[in-house]
C-alpha cells in the first residue's frame, strides 16, 4: 500500500541506530506515524524538525502496519520557530493537543489551522487568539464542542459574556448575573462576529476557558495532564503583551 501527501512534522523519536519514528499531521489522513530510515542523518535531522512542512510518501504491506515514510522538504520553518518563546512552546503545545485525536483520523480543518498558526507564532496577540480557537476546534472534534453563539437561557446573541461550566453554553450578562461568580468568562474576541482584538486579559480568560473543558472532558478521564509546553506558551504570550504575573491564568480544573 502507498500514498503521498503534504504534511507537517509534529515530532520524532529514535528507532534503532540510525532511524526514527516520525509523527506528522496530514490533511486527509490525520495524525500519522511512520519509520524514516536514516532519519538521524545530518541531511534528515533539519528536515524532521517540528513545524516543518514536508512531502510524505508512506509505504507498507498492510494498512494496519507502521510502514515507512519517504520525506522531502517543502517549507522549513523550524529555524524561524526557534526565534521566539511563543513559537518554541506553541508548536510543541499544538502537537500535544493533536495527540488527543485518534491516529489516522482525518481532521482537514485542524491541519489547515495548524498551518496558519505556525506562520503567526511570532506575533503573541495573533498567536494567542489563534491558539485558543485551535483548542476549541480540538474540543469540538473530540465531541465536546462549546456553544458560544446563543444564550442558553434566553436565546439572545447580544451581550454574551459568560460560559456555563456545566453545559459549555454561553450565557448573556443579564441571565448569568445571579451566578456570575460560578461562571467562566467569555473573552470578547470569541463573541459572535466580534471585532475585538485579543488583549492580555481576554487571552487569559480564553486560556482558562479552554483549559477547564480540556481538563474535564479530555485529560482527567484519561489520567493525563495538559502539556507543560502549553503553560510555557501562555506565559510567553501574556508576558509579551505586558500582562502582570498575577493576571496570568492558573491551571483550571473541573
From TrEMBL:
Q: Which domain of life is it from?
A: Bacteria
Q: Name one Pfam family in it.
A: RecO_N
Q: Which UniProt keywords apply?
A: DNA damage, DNA recombination, DNA repair
What are the transmembrane regions?
Answer: none
Would you name any one GO CC term?
bacterial nucleoid
Domain DNA replication/recombination mediator RecO N-terminal, which positions?
Answer: 1-70
Could you tell me the Gene Ontology terms of the biological process aspect for this record? DNA recombination; double-strand break repair
Q: Which HAMAP family match?
A: RecO (MF_00201)
NCBIfam families of this UniProt entry? reco
Q: What is this protein called?
A: DNA repair protein RecO
Amino acid at each position: 500500500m502507498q500514498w503521498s501527501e503534504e504534511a507537517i512534522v509534529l515530532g520524532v523519536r529514535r528507532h534503532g541506530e540510525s532511524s526514527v519514528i516520525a509523527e506528522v499531521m496530514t490533511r486527509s489522513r490525520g495524525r500519522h506515524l511512520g519509520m524514516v530510515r536514516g532519519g538521524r542523518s545530518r541531511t534528515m535531522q533539519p528536515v524532521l524538525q517540528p513545524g516543518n512542512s514536508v512531502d510524505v510518501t508512506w509505504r507498507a504491506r498492510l494498512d494496519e502496519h507502521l510502514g515507512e515514510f519517504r520525506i522531502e522538504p517543502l517549507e522549513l520553518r523550524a529555524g524561524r520557530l526557534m526565534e521566539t518563546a511563543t513559537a518554541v512552546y506553541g508548536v510543541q503545545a499544538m502537537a500535544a493537543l493533536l495527540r488527543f485525536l485518534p491516529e489516522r483520523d482525518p481532521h482537514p480543518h485542524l491541519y489547515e489551522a495548524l498551518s496558519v498558526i505556525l506562520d503567526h507564532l511570532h506575533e503573541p496577540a495573533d498567536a494567542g487568539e489563534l491558539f485558543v480557537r485551535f483548542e476549541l476546534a480540538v474540543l469540538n472534534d473530540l465531541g465536546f464542542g462549546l456553544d458560544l453563539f446563543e444564550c442558553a437561557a434566553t436565546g439572545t446573541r447580544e451581550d454574551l459574556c459568560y460560559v456555563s461550566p456545566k453545559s459549555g453554553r454561553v450565557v448573556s450578562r443579564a441571565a448569568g448575573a445571579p451566578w456570575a461568580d460560578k461562571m467562566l468568562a467569555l473573552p470578547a474576541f470569541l463573541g459572535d462576529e466580534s471585532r475585538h482584538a485579543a488583549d492580555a486579559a481576554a487571552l487569559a480568560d480564553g486560556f482558562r476557558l479552554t483549559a477547564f473543558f480540556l481538563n474535564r472532558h479530555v485529560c482527567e478521564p484519561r489520567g493525563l495532564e495538559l502539556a507543560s509546553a502549553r503553560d510555557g506558551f501562555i506565559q510567553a504570550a501574556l508576558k509579551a503583551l505586558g500582562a502582570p504575573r498575577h493576571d496570568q491564568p492558573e491551571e483550571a480544573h473541573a
